Amino acid sequence: MHYVVHCLDHDGAVEKRLANYEAHKSYLAQAPVKTVISGPLLADDEKTMIGSCFVLEADSLAAVEEFNRNDPFARVGLWKTVSIRPFAKRVDNR
Fold first, then answer.
1. Which of 91, 83, 62, 77 is nearest to 16 (CA)?
2. Secondary structure in 3-state letters for the chain
3. pLDDT for 53
4. pLDDT digits (tens, 9 = 90+) for 6-33
5. Lesser CB count within 10 Å: N end or C end of the chain?
C-alpha cells in the first residue's frame, strides 16, 4: 500500500532542518519502508524549505507511523504538523 506523509515545519526552522539534513538522508537510505518519492516542500518563493512530503510503500499505516516517529527530523521537533494518509496510486506517467 502507498501512503502520503505531509509535514510542515515550525516557523523559522530552516537552520534546524539543515543541521539535521545528513542524518535525515541516512535514515531514508536505510529505512524499513520504501520511499517512492520524497523531498522538501517549498514556500511561495520556490526556494525556502518549509516542510517535507513523502510517498511511501509499506505493509501498514503503523509501519509508516513508526518510520515517521523515528525520522531524525521528527526526533528534533522540526515538524509542526504531520499528516499521514493511505494513497491509491492511479496514474504514473513517467
1. 77
2. CEEEEEEEECCCCHHHHHHCHHHHHHHHHHCCCEEEEEEEEECCCCCCEEEEEEEEECCCHHHHHHHHHHCHHHHCCCEEEEEEEEECCCCCCC
3. 98
4. 999 999 999 999 999 999 999 999 998 9
5. C
